[in-house]
Amino acid sequence: MHIHILGICGTFMGSMAVLAKELGHHVTGSDANVYPPMSTQLQAQGIELTQGYDPAQLDPAPDLVVIGNAMSRGNPAVEYVLNKGLPYVSGPQWLADHVLQGRWVLAVAGTHGKTTTSSMLAWVLEHAGMSPGFLIGGVPQNFSVSARLGGTPFFVIEADEYDSAFFDKRSKFVHYRPRTAILNNLEFDHADIFPDLPAIERQFHHLVRTIPSEGLVIHPTTEPALLRVIEMGCWTPVQTTGAGGQWQVKLLSEDGSKFEVMFEGAVQGVVEWDMTGQHNVANALATLAAARHVGVVPSMGIAALSAFKSVKRRMEKVAEVRGITIYDDFAHHPTAIATTLDGLRKRIGDAPLIAIIEPRSNSMKLGAHRDGLPESVVDADQVIWYSPANLGWDLGATAALCTVPSIVSDSLEGIIERVKSQAQPGTHVVIMSNGGFGGLHGKLAEALQ
């Protein structure tokens, strides 16, 4: 079957393409922006990519068009599909029908940490010999691909609350029907599709409604929004993590790189790993709870976590030049920025830390998070904010509210010059964006040579 995917370089759609190829389909796709790591992964899988949405790519007609949620009416390829009456489907619906049917789905939902936690969970099951399938919105370094079918009934999926397609405004995760569900945390995000936090809570409740009574819901005790979701009705056993929960930790190092795990008061073992930050400790607890639900004893899960490598673009060390370390991070929400910088600060002590941030997500462009930004960067020594041409609000006014030195730059060259003038051996530079950032990571490393 020839499947053509519109919006194929999105992390979800690209991963779905890999699964379709593994099922034996002829897969092609197109996107407005074709860039790594997804483009590289797709080309390595022999998937043909087209830049742009010229309807010519749909002639001869494929057997099925899978339409990504970034596509909207008015897009030339979408209009062609509708006018010609070509069969089409959303990505989540295709996945539910052709991959998840009849499997034990372990879903990881939440505002932050979905990619990292899904990667941890897939790795823990792999380490235990369970050969899970998975679809993750990033490339886990333990696997080097973002999706595979796997060899057993178990399938780990990053369960996103974003909408499914222009013709299906339900959150993606309502299609997945998980048996084990991690609800990591819940804050306001995706201001382009949700008016407020209660609207997102409602979608999370739709997810909870789909989880069987023989399943398991895992959530932290410290998230008021998730407690409200559960109070709307829950027909499934629940396990809680964190303060006062069944799963707890005792930090053995301040940066979160070593901690003891307790389940129902009994010590299960110690995780010692390369990760930092309280958020990753919380992700690990939820992972151990989910893995135990499918039969992985905590001690085995702990051994797996100690061998876990992070996901590409999650505090990934991309270069070290003349003693200056450059990291790439996906953070694009004030909470994620704050927890990432906090974890690194605890690891590097007083070493100089420069944060470079691109407010690129739809919520950022709409200004939904701007009030939280000044507070999110307090652990940096200085911040460089990148102001793209289409930002609809005054980034300079936000930068002026920061308690650490902050400047706004509208060019990559300006950012590079600033870092060159400020960074010295021992400096750590974190580049934060949920896009390619114009290849800044490589350009900066080259300039520092």
TrEMBL record:
EC supergroup of this enzyme: ligase
Required co-factor(s) are: Mg(2+)
According to the entry, every stretch annotated as the Mur ligase C-terminal domain falls at 313-435
Query: What InterPro entries does this protein map onto?
Result: Mpl, Mur-like_cat_sf, Mur_ligase_C, Mur_ligase_C_dom_sf, Mur_ligase_cen, Mur_ligase_N, MurCDEF_pg_biosynth
- Family classification: Belongs to the MurCDEF family. Mpl subfamily.
Pathway, per Swiss-Prot/TrEMBL?
Cell wall biogenesis; peptidoglycan recycling
Entry's transmembrane regions:
none
Which residue intervals define the domain Mur ligase N-terminal catalytic in the entry? 2-99
Reactions accelerated catalytically: UDP-N-acetyl-alpha-D-muramate + L-alanyl-gamma-D-glutamyl-meso-2,6-diaminopimelate + ATP = UDP-N-acetyl-alpha-D-muramoyl-L-alanyl-gamma-D-glutamyl-meso-2,6-diaminopimelate + ADP + phosphate + H(+)
What the entry lists under Gene3D superfamilies is as follows: Mur ligase, C-terminal domain (3.90.190.20), Mur-like, catalytic domain (3.40.1190.10), NAD(P)-binding Rossmann-like Domain (3.40.50.720)
From what superkingdom does this record's organism come?
Answer: Bacteria
Look up the record and give one Gene Ontology term from the biological process aspect: peptidoglycan biosynthetic process
* Span of domain Mur ligase central: 108-291
Can you say what this protein is called?
UDP-N-acetylmuramate--L-alanyl-gamma-D-glutamyl-meso-2,6-diaminoheptandioate ligase
**EC number(s) of the enzyme?**
6.3.2.45
UniProt KW keywords: ATP-binding, Cell cycle, Cell division, Cell shape, Cell wall biogenesis/degradation, Ligase, Magnesium, Nucleotide-binding, Peptidoglycan synthesis
Explain the purpose of this protein.
Reutilizes the intact tripeptide L-alanyl-gamma-D-glutamyl-meso-diaminopimelate by linking it to UDP-N-acetylmuramate.
Chain sites annotated for binding ATP: 110-116
Q: Name one GO molecular function term.
A: UDP-N-acetylmuramate-L-alanyl-gamma-D-glutamyl-meso-2,6-diaminoheptanedioate ligase activity
